[in-house]
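[User] At your convenience, examine this fold.
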Amino acid sequence: MELGPQLAERTKDHLVGGREVRQVELYFLARVSAADVDPARAPQPDNIRAYRWWTLAELRNTQQTVHPVGLAPTWSRPAPQGGP
């Protein structure tokens, strides 16, 4: 898989096993087919409750919490090659 441009970054401090850690998340555009998505191959598959494909309009208008919060409104124009 080839990563496209970085879309967002999120830093969060929290406790893991009683120790304070800083978690840094980087979000990139990536184009994959639906057949390429397999939660069982994730590093922590037990943490994945569900997945789905979202259009940009759906992300902007959903009442559900989608992480990172506020990502969709930051996209002011489509990414190169027609996504997201």
The longest strand covers residues 3-16. The helical segments are 56-61. The first helix runs from residue 56 to 61.
